[in-house]
Amino acid sequence: MRHPENIQKLIDAFMQLPGVGPKTAERYVYHLIRQPKQLSFAMSAAINNVANSITTCNQCHAISQTNPCLICANQARNNGTICVVSDTHDSTAIESLSIFHGRYHILNGSLDPVHGITADKLTINQLVQKLQTDTSIKEVILALNPDIEGETTMSYIKKLLTVFPVKITRLALGLPTGADLEYADPHTLTKALNNRTNV
């Protein structure tokens, strides 16, 4: 049995989300249909608001509502330490710990040539330019996921940064191999950040 056209379009839209297949998308849609219309209206308004108001910080490349983002605009942050993460949600996970007071650099992904993600698709060149122009940077923390793509990206960045007089560190190996930074529990992530090691 085919769904009505408008329902099928919404199912197709949900299927664009990561990890959402046809059956899950179908459950989401029919759950929404059974709820008061106000819920659908509120979700639609929230999505429209994000689509119309979101931007990218031109300093750290984070997804933000302002440019520069609130962290880059905060003069109290430590300019001497840059924490390099793959995505904005990784920096959000670290910020939730309230133990890191430096600045971030968002790569917008990790090296994955098999899927066409090469260095020119990331903000690696912008990171190198930061170090060329900002002599106040003393440490670069490579806080990437401990999977194949993350390890490859860290090795690549390390080679580029060895020409600069900065300390290059990575998160301690308290994070299990293959884990996503955004899903790490606060205790594990705190230990990994506090016990970071030289690379």
Report on this structure.
The chain is an alpha/beta fold. It folds into two domains: 5-53, RecR Domain 1 (Helicase, Ruva Protein, domain 3); 56-198, Dna Topoisomerase Vi A Subunit, Chain: A, domain 2, CATH 3.40.1360.10. It contains eight helices and seven strands, in the order H-H-H-E-E-H-E-H-E-H-E-H-E-H-E. It has helices at residues 5-14, 22-34, 37-53, 70-73, 88-95, 124-133, 148-161, 186-194; strands at 55-56, 63-64, 81-85, 103-106, 139-142, 167-170, 197-198. The strands form two sheets. The protein has a five-stranded mixed beta sheet with strand order 4-3-5-6-7. Strand 3, helix 5 and strand 4 (103-106) form a beta-alpha-beta unit. The protein is elongated. The termini are far apart. The model has no long low-confidence stretch (mean pLDDT 92).
User: Order of strands across the biggest sheet?
Assistant: 4-3-5-6-7
Number of helical regions: 8
Task: Give a quick account of the main beta sheet: strands, pairing sense, barrel closure.
Answer: 5 strands, mixed
Determine the structural class based on helices, strands and strand pairing: alpha/beta
